[in-house]
Amino acid sequence: MIEDLVVGWDGVLCSTRYDRETGAFFVIAVHSRQRGPAAGGTRAMQYETYADAVADAMRLASSMTLKMAAADLPMGGGKSVIALPAARHDIDDATWQRILAIHAEDLSILNGSYWTGPDVGTTAEDMDVLHAASGLAFGRSERAGGPGSSAPSTAQGVHVALVRAAAEAGLDDLTGRRVVIQGLGAVGMDVLRLTRKDGAELIASDIDEEKCEQARELGATIVPPDDVLDLESDVFVPCAMGGLIDLDVARRIRTSVIAGAANTILTEPAVGDELARRGIVYAPDFIANSGGAIHLVGREVLGWSAQEVAAHIEGIGATLGEVFEQARATGSSAEHAAHVLAESRL
Ligand code: NAI
Ligand code: PHE
After folding, report:
1. For the segment 151-171, what is each residue's pLDDT rounded down to a tens digit?
2. Is 80 in the pocket of ligand 1 (CB under 6 A)?
3. Which domains does the chain have, with CATH numbers?
4. CA of 220 to the centre of ligand 1 (A)
C-alpha cells in the first residue's frame, strides 16, 4: 500500500517517523521546490491507518504546490501530517510538547528545504514552539513576533472567492441567498461572519456542538452534519475536511456555487468536469483558500505590510476570473483551467 503511494506520487521526498513513547506517526511530504523552498501546514489528527496519513500528506503537499504557483508566491509545496494516537483534545501537554519537539527535529533535518505553518490541529502557539526549536515555521503568534494565525486571511480569501464565483453563476447579490457552511472552525466561523454581512440566509453545520451554538448566536440555522450534502443551496462552502465531493456527490448536489476553505475538496479532477457539466460554478480550492498562504508568505518572506497582504487577498477574485474565462474559452472545467494556470508557473 505505502509502495503504491510512493510509486504513484510525483513529489520529491516523503519522510516518515514513528515515536514509540507517544505512538505518534510523523510524515513530511515535499512535493516541489521548483518555485522555492517547499511550504505547507502541519496537520495533526487521528487517521485510520498510517497509509491514510501518508496519502493525505502527499495529496495536500501536491495541492500546496498548485496554491503557491496560482498565487504567484516564491515557494514550493509540502505538508506535514502527524497521525495522533488519540483525539487532539485528549493528548496531555507533556505528550504534545514531545510530539512538537520530534516534528521540529524533522524540520531541522530537512534544513530549510521545507517550512511549515498551522493547519488543522495546530495553532500559532504551536508554531512558536516549532520555530523556537527549528527556525522553520511560519505563522507564529503576534506575541512571539510572528504575523499570527493564517485563518482570518484564509476566511477573507474564501469570502472573496465565493462572491466572485456567485457572480459567475449570475448571483450578483447574496442578500437572501441560501449559503450552507460546513465546518465552523477557525476559518468557517469567520466566513460565516463575513457572509452574514452580505445578508445571506445562513445554514451551518459542525460536529462540535459548542461551535454550532456560537453560529446559532450569529443567526445561522444549524443542521446535522450528515444533512449538508442533501440540502438545496445557492452557495455551498466546505470548510471542514477534503475528499468531500466525489462523482456521486457531484451528480446529485443541489447548489449553484461551491467555494470553500477545505483543501483537496474534489476526490479527482473528473469531479470538476461533472460539476462543470451540471453548470455548477466551482472555485478551485487551492485558489479559494490561498489567503492563508498569502498572509504567511507575504508577511514573513516578502516583507509585505498588512495592507499589501489584504490587496493580494482581494486579487484572488481576479485570479478566479481568469480561471473562469479560460474554462469558458477552452470548454474545460474551472478545476482543469486552474491546474493549467498553476502548472504554467512551474
Ligand atoms: P479547524 O480545525 O479550526 O476547523 C475545522 C472544523 O470542521 C472543526 O470545527 C471541526 O469540528 C469541523 N468538522 C470536522 N468534520 C466535520 C464534518 N464532517 N461536518 C461538519 N464539521 C466538521 O480548521 P480550519 O483552520 O478552520 O481549516 C478548515 C479547512 O480549511 C481545513 O481543510 C484546512 O486544511 C483548510 N485550510 C485552512 C487554512 C487556514 O489558514 N487555517 C488555509 C487553507 C486551507
Ligand atoms: N495550512 C494552510 C494552507 O493550507 C496555511 C499555510 C500556508 C501553512 C502556507 C503553511 C504554509 O494553506
Report:
1. 999 999 999 999 999 999 999
2. no
3. 2-66+76-139 (3.40.50.10860), 151-344 (3.40.50.720)
4. 18
